[in-house]
Design goal:
The chain has a single domain, classed as Acid Proteases (Cathepsin D, subunit A, domain 1, Beta Barrel). The protein is 7% helix and 51% strand. It has two helices and eleven strands; from the N terminus they run βββββαββββαββ. The longest helix is centred in the first third of the chain and has 7 residues. The two termini are 24 Å apart.
Length: 156
């Protein structure tokens, strides 16, 4: 189990995330199918994309082009996963906002049970806990985080 403090700015939760041993700032986004990162961060983290894997992503600002690849490892504190599907945005600007390297989506989150914990003594934290072993990994759209509630990430 990993307890991860998070910052809330402009209505979003940002987390310190490590992708292929490179630290970055990602927005927690339970509505995002994939972990999505900027092309600049993908180069730093050496996230390779597959040829012919272009997808059109629906974003808050409209549609955007991305290439699908895989991060060898992604970790948030002690919560870690390998072989995580990752969308690399083709936009060379700052598609997620200034100082933000990407979105932490369900291609990572679906591998864990996630709690949102708030207390006066500890502040706000997310708790990542591995679910019981299953025959196959949960689908990327298996659930969501709700304030104060445990959501079991399981097939629907």
């Amino acid at each position: 189990m990993a307890r991860i403090p998070f910052a809330v700015g402009l209505g979003v939760r940002t987390l310190n995330v490590v992708v292929n041993n490179v630290a970055g700032t990602l927005i927690l986004d339970t509505g995002a199918t994939f972990v999505s990162i900027t092309s600049r961060f993908a180069i730093k983290a050496r996230v390779a994309t597959e040829s012919g894997s272009q997808v059109i992503m629906k974003t808050v600002g409209g549609k955007a082009l991305a290439d699908i690849g895989y991060a060898d490892s992604i970790s948030v504190g002690k919560a870690a996963a390998s072989g995580v599907t990752t969308a690399v945005m083709r936009d060379d600007g700052e598609p997620f906002g200034k100082g933000v390297d990407g979105l932490l989506g369900t291609s990572f989150l679906s591998r864990f049970n996630v709690f949102d914990e708030r207390s006066r003594t500890r502040g706000s934290s997310l708790i990542f806990d591995h679910p019981p072993a299953v025959a196959r990994p949960p689908s990327p759209r298996a659930g969501s985080i709700r304030d104060g509630n445990l959501i079991m990430w399981q097939e629907r």
